[in-house]
Each structure stands twice: as C-alpha cells, then as structure tokens.
C-alpha cells in the first residue's frame, strides 16, 4: 500500500460510497389457497344460445346427476358426463309450456321433474319420456317457484305473485293447504333436509317464514326479516340454519335459536339472485373430509364461495354477464351457473373420485343416492403393482423419500468443471458479496486464486477492483480481502499504470481505506477516553 500512496497524493476529502440495497419485486398476484385451487380445478364449459335468461337450474339427486335448465318457454336436460367431451348440446328438451318457465325441481329419486311457468300452471313430467303426468292449476297469478320436499315423494310446494304458498297432493292434483301470511310476491322456497313437514319461504315483503304443515291454522311457526326483498333461501345441511339472499347481502339465521341472525355477508356489489350449498374437499392431518360452503351469484357477475364455519369468503370468480342462478351437483363434481343473456357456465371437476352427497341419505326408509366407493387396492390385485406416481399412499405403505435435486448456480457448475477463472468472473458479475467471498475461499483452498488474478484481462480486473473497493474494509471480510488487495496491486501494477480506468478503481479503493482508517482512529480516541472512566467505576 506504500507504493500506492507514493504514486497518488493523499486527498483531504473523504467520501463514503453507500451501496443501495436491491428491493425484491412484489409478486403480481397472491398465491392461490388450497381452496381456491379446488374451485379453480372445475374445467369451465360454455353452453350458449339458450335464447333468454336462465331462470332456474336443478340437479337430479340420482346418478349420473343430470341437470335441468329453465329458459324462455323450455326446459333442457344436460348430462354432466358429456361436458368432459366438450358436448354442450342438451340430451332432451321439454317445450310444452305456454309461458316463460320460472322454476324447476327434481323429485328425490330423480324420476320426476316439476316445472312452473308465469301463466300460473305447475306441471310434473316423467324425466325419461318427457311426458306431462300432472297439470296443477290453482294459482291466479304467475308462479315463481316449485319445490319437491327432500324426504317426500307425494307432495309438492309452489308459490308466486298471488302471495299464496300451496301444498299439493300430486297424485290427486289437489291443494292440501293454502298458506297465507306473506304480503307481497313469494319468490323462493326450500325444504328441510331433516323433516318432511318443514319448509321455508322468502318474499318481496322482506320476510322469511318457516312453515310446518302439521300446524292446523296454517300459520308460519317462525318469521325473520331480511331487510330487503328476498330473492332466494336455502336450508343448510344441519337443518338448524338457513341462508337468505336479498339486496347485496347473504344472511345466515339460527332457527333453533329462535330466528337469531348469525352473520351477514355483504361482499356483492349488486343484488344477489341465487344461492346454493356446495362442498369442498379438505385435508386435515392426512385425512380427507368434505366441508359445506354457500355459493352465491349476483347481478355484479361474481360468484362468491362463503365458509359459514369461519364466516369468511374463501373464493371469488368473475363472469362476463349478470348471473341469475347457480346449482351444485350432489356428487360435488359439477357446478353450473346461468346468466341473464342465455349462457350457462358449466364447470366439471377433473378426477374419477366419487364423493358422497350427504344431503340425502337412507332416512325414513328412502334409499341413499351416494355412489358406491371404489374398491380398495390390495397387494393380491394385479392392478396394485401398476400404480403410478400420482397414487396416494395408504396408511400401511412404507414411503421411500427421494432427495430433491439441488439446482446449482453458474459459478458452482464452473467450479465443478475446474474452470476457476470463469467461476470467479461469473460470481463477480452477479455482485453478491457472500457468494464472491465463498468462491474466493474455495479458490484459496485449491491454491488457484492468485493464478486466476494473474490471468484476468483489464475489464475483469476492473470488476475485481470494484468489488475490493466496496467490501475490503468490511470487518467480516477484511482478513481475506485486504491481503488479496495487496497481492492484486503487487501482481498487476504495470496494468494499473497503463489504464486510466484501473487507476480510477485504485483511487476509490484508496479513499475507502483512508475513510476506514479515520473511523478507526476516532474509535481509538473514544476508547482512550472511556477506558479510564471504566477503570475508576470498576474500583468503586
């Protein structure tokens, strides 16, 4: 260093060169949660050209879970299995209506389909032959909903703009009960999943009423006020909670607690038009389970997935048109959404697993509609030895873990090939001081560092001097870098004298060293002042 001081006059101006840290760029989009990945796994298929708004959607409770769509004066039946092949044509269409179809509902065995229209007529069809079996006429105004009870094959519910809810005997084509209590249009209805006698209705008078057909005076047994015209209402699977949709909110009510509101979800910007219950597959401690969710759609074009256990929205999806209806298949593999411009967005989830519905079981003598579980693979089966990498291990399997392959950096690859100089130049160009020092220490261990320095050209030597001027005085690296600095100057002094650029790097190096010396002198002065005081304090 004495030779450098002789060549360059000492400067009285000291300057510290700060290194601006690199800021990590923010990710453009948040990582998907496991639940968002589940809902995004539904392969979307567009079913266009259905003339007008999709007023109602309904799935058959029995496999393969056909779904029916009501639009204009027609009802079309679609097979979810054909969606996987890209076939969007309906398997059959029912067109024996004189007015716009407002609502449809399958019986719990999937053999019959009830449909209502704006002429006030309710019809019951055979799903296979599309033959109208019953024509129920008693409403004086348009009928807005028709519903088969979950646990009853013999009766039917309907309601409409005459503010009357009718309980029908389908076989006799007669009205069993006229339930009057609403003061405005009755728009929606759902039946209890645990009792064949209980159901709930929603009206434009802002009220939701719970009815029991065993009550003699035909009055509602419970009433709650949603605060806005009610567009849809559903029972949640437990039977003790209901969800209502109206305005831009979905509210959950506790019926067992006397109609207490549990939560109000207001994430939509416009009117919520339809809600249904969906199910999501969750993994807890290695065990898979199904959890229920509320799916809501609205005129803002959004579908929201609401976890009513944690009371939060877990997924949101945007569609290019106002949404009018939504439905979810009992086997949890198909989701359909109807829009106001006659398009159905049908989502089919990939995979071959059969998911048990859980909505309808072997209750009160009715047979279960869940699909049979796949046979468990055993070591005695030939198929057991042909499992692929995607096969999930069972409880008794012994897992052989394979270490993940470590991706080497460019300088590590060059070191493995014994290209020492190229490795040093590569790591210097990346400007990561920890990696540079690590490579230098490796070259020292291989006794190749000085040879690499002697073989550097002018540009590469400039990179090295730049690094040394910025980091040689750092206490963490000074023991290695200060010695290297001295050797570099001694070995390449002629090259430095012949290059103005290299002289500039040497001047920067000199300034940083002088600044460090000044700081050290200041610290020694402070130490000289403090040391006597500490000795005096120690004697006391």
Topology:
Blueprint (H helix, E strand, L loop, with lengths): L1 H6 L26 H7 L1 E6 L6 E6 L7 E5 L2 E5 L1 H4 L8 E3 L6 E6 L5 E6 L3 E6 L5 E6 L5 E5 L7 E6 L3 E6 L4 E7 L5 E6 L6 E6 L3 E6 L9 E4 L4 E6 L5 E6 L2 E6 L5 E6 L6 E13 L2 E12 L3 E6 L4 E7 L4 E6 L5 E6 L4 E6 L60 H7 L3 H11 L2 H13 L3 H6 L3 H14 L6 H14 L1 H5 L2 H40 L1
Antiparallel strand pairs: 1-28, 2-3, 3-4, 4-5, 6-7, 7-8, 8-9, 10-11, 11-12, 12-13, 14-15, 15-16, 16-17, 18-19, 19-20, 20-21, 22-23, 23-24, 24-25, 26-27, 27-28
Helix pairs in contact: 4-5, 5-6, 8-11
Description:
This protein has 540 residues and is of the alpha+beta class. It has 2 domains: 34-348, YVTN repeat-like/Quinoprotein amine dehydrogenase (Methylamine Dehydrogenase, Chain H), CATH 2.130.10.10; 414-538, no CATH class. The chain has helices at 2-7, 34-40, 80-83, 410-416, 420-430, 433-445, 449-454, 458-471, 478-491, 493-497, 500-539, and strands at residues 42-47, 54-59, 67-71, 74-78, 92-94, 101-106, 112-117, 121-126, 132-137, 143-147, 155-160, 164-169, 174-180, 186-191, 198-203, 207-212, 222-225, 230-235, 241-246, 249-254, 260-265, 272-284, 287-298, 302-307, 312-318, 323-328, 334-339, 344-349. Strands 1-28-27-26 form a 4-stranded antiparallel beta sheet. It has a 4-stranded antiparallel beta sheet with strand order 2-3-4-5, with no helix packed on it. A hairpin with a 2-residue loop joins strand 3 and strand 4. The longest helix is centred in the last third of the chain and has 40 residues, at 500-539. It is elongated and about 110 Å long. 33% of the residues are buried.
């Amino acid at each position: 260093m004495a030779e450098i001081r002789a060549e360059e006059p000492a400067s009285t101006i000291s300057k510290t060169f700060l290194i601006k840290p690199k800021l990590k760029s923010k990710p453009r989009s948040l990582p998907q949660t496991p639940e968002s990945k589940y809902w995004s796994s539904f392969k979307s298929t567009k079913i266009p050209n259905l003339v007008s708004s999709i007023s109602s959607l309904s799935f058959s409770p029995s496999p393969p879970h056909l779904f029916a769509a009501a639009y204009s004066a027609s009802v079309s039946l679609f097979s979810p299995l054909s969606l996987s092949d890209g076939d969007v044509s309906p398997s059959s269409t029912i067109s024996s209506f004189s007015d716009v179809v407002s609502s449809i509902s399958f019986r719990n065995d999937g053999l019959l389909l009830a449909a209502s229209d704006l002429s006030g007529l309710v019809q019951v069809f055979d799903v296979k032959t599309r033959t109208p079996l019953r024509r129920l006429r008693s409403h004086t105004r348009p009928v807005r909903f028709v519903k088969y009870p979950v646990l009853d094959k013999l009766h039917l519910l309907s309601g409409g703009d005459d503010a009357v809810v009718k309980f029908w005997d389908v076989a006799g084509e007669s009205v069993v009960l006229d339930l009057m209590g609403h003061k405005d249009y009755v728009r929606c209805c759902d039946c209890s999943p645990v009792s064949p006698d209980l159901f709930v209705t929603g009206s434009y008078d802002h009220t939701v009423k719970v009815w029991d057909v065993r009550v003699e005076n035909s009055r509602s047994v419970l009433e709650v006020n949603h605060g806005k015209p009610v567009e849809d209402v559903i029972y949640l699977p437990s039977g003790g909670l209901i969800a209502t949709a109206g305005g831009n909110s979905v509210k959950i009510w506790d019926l067992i607690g006397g109609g207490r509101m549990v939560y109000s979800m207001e994430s939509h910007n416009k009117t919520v038009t339809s809600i249904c219950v969906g199910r999501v597959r969750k993994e807890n401690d290695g065990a898979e389970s199904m959890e229920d969710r509320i799916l809501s759609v609205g005129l803002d074009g959004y579908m929201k997935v609401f976890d009513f256990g944690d009371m939060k929205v877990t997924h949101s999806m945007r569609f290019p048109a106002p949404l009018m209806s939504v439905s979810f298949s009992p086997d949890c593999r198909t989701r359909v959404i109807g829009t106001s411009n006659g398009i159905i967005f049908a989502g089919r989830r990939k995979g071959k697993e059969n998911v048990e519905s859980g909505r309808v079981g072997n209750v009160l003598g009715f047979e279960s509609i869940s699909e049979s579980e796949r046979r468990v693979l055993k070591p005695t089966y030939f198929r057991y030895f042909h499992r692929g990498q995607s096969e999930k291990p069972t409880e008794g399997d012994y897992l052989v873990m394979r270490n993940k392959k470590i991706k080497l950096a460019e300088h590590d690859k060059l070191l493995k090939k014994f290209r020492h100089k190229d490795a040093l130049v590569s790591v210097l160009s990346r400007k990561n001081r920890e990696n540079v020092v690590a490579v230098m220490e490796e070259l020292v261990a291989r006794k190749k560092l000085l040879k690499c320095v002697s073989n550097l050209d002018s540009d590469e030597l400039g990179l090295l001097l730049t690094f040394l001027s910025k980091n040689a005085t750092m206490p963490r690296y000074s023991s290695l870098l200060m010695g290297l600095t001295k050797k570099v100057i001694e070995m390449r002094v002629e090259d430095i004298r012949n290059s103005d650029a290299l002289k500039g790097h040497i001047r920067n190096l000199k300034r940083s060293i002088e600044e460090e010396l000044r700081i050290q002198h200041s610290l020694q002065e402070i130490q000289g002042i403090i040391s006597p005081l500490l000795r005096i304090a120690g004697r006391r």
